[in-house]
């Protein structure tokens, strides 16, 4: 039982260890901006994890770059653009809905609508189809059915 509690405590504390004390800026306003920007940037090593939550060396470098750009006087948008210019659009956890990304943003809902349309057409054609009744059997088929049921 103690081991389970210890393991759960260590797992819960793991994301807290990502940001090192030497990375924290002295200015609380700049640090808050850095945290906000970092929460929207993807760790290139860990994939779907923000750089604030990652212990990877590259994530640390990215956190330091964000803080350096803020200390240099860049706006939040300029800092994000600097990271995107350096690492590409993939560095954003929430990609921008511009240019070729529109295809990705619209593909999911588009496929859902197309699939729903196909399903509706299929169900509609099934409802219109003539149901086959038992009395539509020819006399030979009825006799064959009777012999099969008697066996």
From TrEMBL:
Protein keywords: Cytochrome c-type biogenesis, Heme, Iron, Membrane, Metal-binding, Signal, Transmembrane, Transmembrane helix
GO cellular component terms, A-Z: plasma membrane
Domain (CcmH/CycL/Ccl2/NrfF N-terminal) ranges: 7-149
Chain segments annotated as transmembrane: 102-123
Highest taxon listed in the record's lineage: Bacteria
GO MF assignments: metal ion binding
Signal peptide positions (record): 1-18
UniProt key word Iron: yes
Gene Ontology BP annotations: cytochrome complex assembly
Alphabetized Pfam families for the sequence: CcmH (PF03918)
InterPro entries: C-type_cytochrome_biogenesis, CcmH/CycL/Ccl2/NrfF_N, CcmH/CycL/NrfF/Ccl2_sf
Role noted for this protein: Possible subunit of a heme lyase.
Record-stated family: Belongs to the CcmH/CycL/Ccl2/NrfF family.
Protein name: Cytochrome c-type biogenesis protein
């Amino acid at each position: 039982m103690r081991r389970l509690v210890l393991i759960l405590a260590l797992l819960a504390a793991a994301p807290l260890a990502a940001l090192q004390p030497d990375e924290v800026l002295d200015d609380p306003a700049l640090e808050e901006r850095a945290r906000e920007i970092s929460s929207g940037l993807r760790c290139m090593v860990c994939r779907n994890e923000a750089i604030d939550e990652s212990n990877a060396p590259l994530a640390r470098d990215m956190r330091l770059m964000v803080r350096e750009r803020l200390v240099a006087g860049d706006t939040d948008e300029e800092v994000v653009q600097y990271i995107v210019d350096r690492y590409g659009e993939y560095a954003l956890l929430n990609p921008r809905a511009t240019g070729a990304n529109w295809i990705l943003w619209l593909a999911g809902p588009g496929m859902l609508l197309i699939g729903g349309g196909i399903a509706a057409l299929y169900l509609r054609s099934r409802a219109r189809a003539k149901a086959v009744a038992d009395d539509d059997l020819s006399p030979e088929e009825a006799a064959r059915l009777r012999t099969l049921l008697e066996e």
